[in-house]
Amino acid sequence: MGIEERVPPHSNEAEQAVLGSIMLDNKVFDDVREILRAEDFYRPTHERIFAIMEKLRAKGKPIDSMTVKDALDNTDEKTYVLDIQGAVPSTKNAKHYAEIVKSRAKLRALITIGNNLMALGFDPSGPEHVDDYIGEAVSQTTLLALAHQHNAIPLGTVLSDLMQELRTGERHYIAPPGLPQARFKPGDLGVLSMGASVGKTVTALHWADEWSKSHNVSFYEYEMTEGDLLSRLICNHAGVKLSSMQDATLTDEELKRIAAAMKGIEQRKLKVQEVWCDIGTLTAKIRRDAQQGTEIVFIDYLGLIPYHRPKNMNDARSIGVCITQPLKRLAAELGIIIILLVQLSREGQRGGEYPKLRHLRDSGEIEQDASLVIMGWSEKLVLDDSKERVEKREESNIVAPDELFDDSFLVFRLSIEKNRNGQAGVHKWLLYRGEHFYFEDRGQEYGILNPPKQGELKYDDNAQ
Fold first, then answer.
1. What is the pTM of this model?
2. Exposed, middle or buried by CB within 10 Å (0-12, 13-18, 19+), for 245?
3. Which of 240, 239, 233, 219 minimizes the C-alpha distance to 262?
4. Residues spanned by CATH 1.10.860.10 within the chain?
5. Strand, helix or coil at 305?
């Protein structure tokens, strides 16, 4: 039998048994629904019948041959419903039948993925995109595996882990420098959002630098080269200006500081990589890094990640389906933290207005998928309004009276707009010295934030 004559894997008897069991005992539906979706059925009639059952259950109506027949338009299908119900002697094996239907659906999905990848392999331009195709293969098979996972963690295991945390006082959190309320834990997808050219990359780099002292961190950069990114980190560590590095006007003393800074940075557990790949390849790279020990991943930034937008789907929905949801699932599966940088909409970059969740581009999907959303505002947005600028500096409560007109720094505001792991609505003011890409935290000195107690935010390296 040729490949073109093969019938896709399915079990008509198992599909009938599932539907017939539900009509005999509606309680069976809830057990079956944990395993199956309507699209898992091979026969179109069975798919339509199961979809009708879902609607009936949602409305609290009984599911039997009469209610299902009334919802069908095709006369032959109405007659077929009676045949299905009569073919099932007992409902006790309904879950087993559902597992059979699901296994056949997985095989059909795997065949579809294989056919798609085979077509890519025969693409004349394949050699130019082989890495992207490999990433797509990993991405599709991973999504297939995750989509069919339905086993719950036993309640006793969850309670035991929680009690262990309470007894030891060790919670598996890590917080950004100076912002202890922003508690990230393994499995979280976090969002760091700011306007264009406000400072999201340098903020993320600041976090990555601090965290990489004790944790393995990967930084995927879509906007600049590895050298440009590390130059900013060197300026921070060495206390030199980027312009001096670019113009090669460094003094002997500055060169010595740079050499020392480079040695210090080399000790960090930080990996920086310039990427231009699509979301499928990116997830494959993240998976590889996680296998090699990476615990925290930064992606700079969402708007530059290539992806294939599904037909008849708006931007907000497609970003969720194609980018943020896969990243969220990946973080949970690998037990890592993923922090995605996102650019604000134009409305969120108005001078004196602080950004809110509604200012996220395509905010509905991003906000829903993220565990934490931290947003940034910079005095840079009001530089042309001297009155507004002074008012913001006074509001920050971290600028001394004799510094109100000092141009050597900018005030910078970070706010926690969403936080599944703790308190939201908290904000933090910092001084930002742009020449050296350096954040000065005056919070403790001025009493803005109380530092965390020792052991309060301990991150467990063995946490999964």
1. 0.65
2. middle
3. 233
4. 3-122
5. coil
